[in-house]
Inverse folding.
């Protein structure tokens, strides 16, 4: 590690280190944030959920959307429609999108997250999680 | 940079580590790896979460799930269920003692709801061994700000305006202390961090050093800049090995990053820190004794003045502050005096960390705004008295403090209010007592502690505390008289007025405060030869209840002095003259026919 020689250099390290704790900071106020859960059980991963998840994280980062938390979750029960994601806007009901491609993911960010619009591909929610 | 989507925080504080937390970390990492998710899930060891009673603690983020009393063998289920399948492991969630409901989010736990974490802001949140995590949380920005934008006087002004008072016990205004040290010119000055923490039951400072060592390192450098010192020393007790290890790593890393050493952040400012180990004597926490101990002399106090700010370590101007005091400094500098001044009470700003202990449901480490009432601390955060017993008293301020009672429960906690009620803030130990605690015995416990810890330099303290504890011994044995009680009061006054240092000056406080609030209990011991709380064994008598005894003869057979008589299937009786109060009969009676009172 090279020495930090100025306040500016310190701030640069802070910026790059921030992403390490960012998720923890967000966790503290998760109810005020947009949550995207990607189903990452075996069949999800097999149909490309990991790529979708990484795409969502990168895209949100690129667009400077710091109110978005992307996490993985387990089986939602829609094996026929993987990859599946669940999007929860603060204070709203969660919606589930199936067969998510990169285009759909992009639309979710553009329309749902930025403007609060719903897009095609919603699957009626049939599963319950333990918190409900 | 790896992009973790889930963080698993495992408490790595002394309490949890002693309950296998390190094994939990290893097992979790193995399981995460086995599930093929090591790039997605980060498992890290943090400092204490405060909820040590229910440790080891594992927290999952971002969904904020708080698991308690986790065992190494639970790692498999936590990964398989929570991480892979997204389902909470119900049985490991905290169960609210009142509603018996499982609470999953720490935000919804009563223990955390009323807390406000400033000194503990990073404890249980970051990996204390990773300087970059501290930097990510605005770490070292305060020293950066001070060095590039502020004069030493401006730093001191912010500290003065903030109203921060020392957390080591005395409550002296920190900014003012820094100003004294700054104004005394010298070729060399020192910044000392007092990490001696001698109060029985207290572990605030240890937790801060274990959970967020960089905050103390940074604050010491800020203090060095403000007063014009280039050298810092931490006096830490050798029995804090984990705190020492984390602090050493923090100092090394800060040096490597150029945040300690010469030309810090390119500003020409120079500051470095070394550790000095203490042997763990209570009196060595007193600042003059601490300085003597660091110089290799006996750890005995000397009279003040001269204050360390004038003539301290090696006769040079020295500023001594407590660990928790320092931990507040970087935040105050970054967020401003005005922000800090809005927290707390008129004359005690900010928050205070307390180590909650005793007969309380949630034992642990808490941080609350000054002005929070004792009732809120004991009932809301502490979860009330254990086993549904009745609250009797709360001891604050350690051996220098006193016992507060029911009528004081609505007192907003701050430096002045506690003193007005006959106790004090001290360093933050808080011990809750219930109906089963005997107050003269509690006073005796503290007096035995000070008697033992007195350095012996001055007579009032050396002889006086010994006499006081002997008198308390007589009282608890039922051999006390009213004249003894008068003598205790008089002796207490004399010691308070004539002892040289704070140890002796405050040693009688537990006696005076319990006599004040629980006079009837002292009288009962002296006049009726009774211990109302049923604790003082010499004053107890064992009795056999007529309606319960079935005459099984068991008690008579176990009694070592053969003082129980009675025929088979008939009532047994204890000869009080010969009974030595060993309790064997009561432990052995299957019919609960024997009581003590
Ligand atoms: C007997 C005795 C023991 C003390 N023990 C400690 C201690 O363990 N830690 C501490 O910080 N201050 C302790 N103090 C207070 C210190 O003398 C000193 O006031 C304090 O470290 C100053 O820091 P502060 O202004 O930040 O509180 C003790 C004082 C006395 C009289
Ligand atoms: S008061 Fe007690 S501890 Fe303090 S100097 Fe005197 S003998 Fe030593
Ligand atoms: S053991 Fe209990 S029941 Fe049996 S004789 Fe003694 S007091 Fe009575
Ligand atoms: S307390 Fe001990 S000595 Fe007394 S009666 Fe019971 S067994 Fe005997
Ligand atoms: S494993 Fe994919 S929906 Fe169940
Ligand atoms: S040591 Fe783990 S919660 Fe305190």
């Amino acid at each position: 590690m090279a020495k930090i020689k100025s306040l500016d250099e310190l701030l640069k390290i802070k910026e790059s280190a921030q992403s390490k704790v960012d998720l923890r900071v967000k966790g503290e106020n998760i109810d005020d944030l947009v949550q995207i859960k990607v189903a990452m059980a075996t069949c999800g991963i097999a149909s490309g959920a990991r790529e979708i998840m990484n795409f969502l994280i990168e895209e949100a980062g690129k667009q400077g959307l710091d109110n978005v938390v992307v996490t993985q979750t387990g089986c939602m029960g829609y094996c026929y429609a993987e990859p599946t994601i669940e999007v929860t806007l603060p204070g709203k009901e969660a919606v589930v999108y199936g067969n998510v491609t990169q285009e759909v993911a992009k639309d979710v960010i553009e329309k749902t997250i930025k403007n609060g619009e719903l897009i095609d591909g919603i699957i009626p929610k049939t599963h319950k999680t333990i918190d409900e | 940079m790896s992009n973790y989507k889930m963080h698993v925080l495992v408490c790595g504080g002394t309490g949890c580590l002693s309950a296998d937390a390190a094994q939990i970390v290893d097992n979790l990492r193995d399981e995460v790896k086995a599930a093929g998710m090591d790039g997605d899930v980060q498992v890290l060891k943090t400092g204490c979460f405060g909820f040590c009673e229910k440790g080891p603690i594992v927290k999952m983020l971002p969904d904020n799930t708080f698991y308690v009393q986790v065992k190494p063998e639970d790692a498999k289920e936590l990964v398989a269920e929570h991480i892979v399948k997204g389902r909470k492991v119900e049985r490991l969630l905290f169960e609210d003692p009142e509603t018996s409901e499982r609470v999953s989010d720490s935000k919804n736990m009563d223990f955390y709801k009323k807390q406000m974490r400033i000194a503990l802001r990073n404890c249980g949140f970051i990996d204390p061994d990773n300087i970059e995590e501290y930097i990510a949380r605005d770490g070292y920005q305060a020293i950066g700000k001070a060095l590039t934008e502020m004069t030493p006087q401006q730093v001191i002004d912010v500290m003065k305006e903030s109203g921060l008072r020392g957390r080591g016990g005395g409550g002296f205004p920190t900014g003012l202390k820094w100003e004294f040290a700054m104004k005394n010119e010298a070729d060399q000055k020192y910044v000392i961090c007092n990490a001696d923490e001698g109060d029985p039951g207290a572990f605030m400072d240890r937790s801060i050093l274990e959970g967020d060592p960089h905050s103390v390192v940074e604050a010491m450098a800020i203090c060095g800049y403000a007063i014009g010192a280039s050298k810092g020393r931490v006096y830490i007790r050798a029995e804090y090995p984990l705190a020492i290890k984390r602090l050493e790593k923090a100092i090394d890393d800060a040096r490597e990053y150029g945040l300690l050493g010469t030309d810090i952040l390119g500003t020409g400012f120079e500051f470095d820190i070394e550790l000095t180990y203490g042997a763990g004597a209570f009196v060595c926490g007193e600042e003059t004794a601490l300085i003597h101990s660091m110089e290799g002399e006996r750890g005995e106090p000397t009279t003040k003045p001269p204050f360390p700010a004038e003539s301290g370590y090696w006769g040079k101007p020295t500023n001594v502050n407590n660990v928790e005091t320092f931990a507040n400094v970087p935040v105050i500098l970054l967020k401003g005096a005005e922000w800090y001044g809005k927290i707390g009470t008129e004359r005690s700003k900010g928050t205070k960390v307390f180590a909650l202990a005793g007969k309380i449901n949630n034992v642990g480490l808490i941080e609350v705004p000054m002005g929070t009432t004792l009732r809120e601390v004991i009932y809301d955060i502490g979860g009330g008295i254990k086993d549904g017993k009745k609250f009797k008293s709360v001891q604050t301020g350690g051996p220098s403090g006193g016992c507060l009672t029911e009528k004081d429960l609505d007192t907003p906690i701050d430096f002045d209010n506690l003193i007005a009620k006959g106790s004090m803030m001290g360093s933050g130990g808080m011990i809750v007592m219930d109906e089963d605690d005997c107050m003269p015995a509690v006073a005796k416990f503290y007096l035995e502690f000070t008697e033992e810890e007195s350095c012996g330099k001055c007579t009032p303290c050396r002889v006086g505390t010994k006499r006081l504890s002997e008198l308390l011994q007589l009282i608890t044995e039922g051999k006390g008289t009213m004249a003894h009680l008068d003598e205790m009061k008089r002796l207490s006054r004399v010691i308070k007025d004539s002892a040289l240092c704070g140890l002796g000056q405050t040693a009688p406080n537990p006696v005076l405060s319990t006599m004040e609030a629980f006079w009837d209990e002292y009288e009962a011991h002296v006049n009726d030869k009774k211990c109302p709380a049923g604790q003082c064994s010499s004053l107890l008598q064992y009795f056999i209840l007529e309606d319960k005894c079935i005459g099984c003869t068991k008690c008579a057979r176990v009694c070592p002095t053969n003082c129980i008589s009675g025929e088979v299937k008939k009532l047994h009786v204890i000869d009080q003259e010969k009974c030595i109060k060993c309790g064997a009969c009561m432990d052995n009676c299957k019919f609960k026919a024997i009581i003590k009172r």
Summary: Chain A touches chain B at residues 1, 3-7, 10-11, 13-14, 16-21, 23-24, 26-28, 30, 37, 40-41, 53-54, 57, 69-75, 129-131 (CB under 8 Å). The mean pLDDT of chain A is 82.
